[in-house]
């Protein structure tokens, strides 16, 4: 069974991430959303909250799993017995960072393959940071996030 890991911070998961997950499901039997603690990014949602949001969005889809992790993604891949990492490429500007990440991961774990998928053009400008900023100022976020995330953001920012 082909099993892929999709690592990221997902603070919060956006429709752009969901678009990538749906594309990955056309290629792999199972996609595990691996949610990094990413303490240096100071996420507004706890790891548990981010896991719960993803689980609720994909409730009923047994081919999508959500797990949290701290530490190296290469170690997680070994633990999960998967040698495929999915990453989204929104624009050329993502490429340099992703290229660096993929090559560092390959240096540590030569059998690990990074696969890049591109989201729909309408999500190419989307980022979790922008969504958080718009939500914190009471802006409209319906076209960027699932209603579950919208509710969580509104609760967090009391808008
Ligand atoms: N739609 C919308 N937004 C997207 C997106 C898409 N399809 N793809 C990426 N993004 C955004 C994210 O929202 C995020 O925005 P933000 O910076 O405003 O929060 C940004 O692009 C990139 O973030 P993300 O995809 O979550 O990755 P990341 O850079 O936060 O996390 C890890 C990268 C977690 C995979 C990486 O740090 C990692 O592997 N960490 C584990 C430790 C490790 O192994 N380190 C060594 C690596 S060589």
Task: Walk me through the structure.
With 159 residues, the protein is α/β, with parallel strands linked by helices. The chain has a single domain (3-157), classed as HUPs (Rossmann fold), CATH 3.40.50. It is 43% helix and 18% strand. It contains 6 helices and 5 strands. It has helices at 15-27, 47-57, 73-79, 92-108, 128-136, 147-157; strands at 3-8, 30-36, 64-69, 84-88, 113-117. The strands form 2 sheets. It has a 3-stranded parallel beta sheet, with helices on both faces. A two-stranded parallel sheet has the order 4-5. Helix 2 links the parallel strand 2 and strand 3. The longest helix has 17 residues, at 92-108. It is globular, with a radius of gyration of 15 Å. The N and C termini lie far apart (44 Å). 33% of the residues are buried. The model has no long low-confidence stretch (mean pLDDT 97). Coenzyme A (COA) binds next to strand 1, helix 1, helix 4 and helix 5. Coenzyme A binds next to strand 1, helix 1, helix 4 and helix 5.
């Amino acid at each position: 069974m082909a099993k892929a890991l999709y690592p990221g911070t997902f603070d919060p998961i956006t429709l752009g991430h969901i678009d990538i997950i749906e594309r990955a499901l056309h290629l792999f039997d199972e996609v595990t959303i691996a949610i990094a603690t990413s303490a240096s990014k100071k996420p507004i949602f706890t790891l548990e909250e981010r896991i719960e949001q993803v689980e609720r969005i994909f409730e009923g889809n047994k081919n999508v799993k959500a797990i949290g992790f701290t530490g190296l993604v290469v170690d997680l891949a070994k633990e999960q017995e998967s040698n495929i990492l999915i990453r989204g490429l929104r624009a050329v500007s993502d490429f340099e960072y992703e290229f660096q990440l993929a090559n560092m991961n390959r240096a540590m774990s030569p059998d690990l393959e990074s696969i890049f998928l591109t989201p729909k053009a309408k999500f190419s400008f989307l980022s979790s940071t922008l969504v958080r900023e718009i939500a914190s100022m009471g802006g409209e976020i319906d076209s960027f996030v699932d209603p579950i995330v919208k509710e969580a953001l509104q609760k967090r920012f009391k808008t």
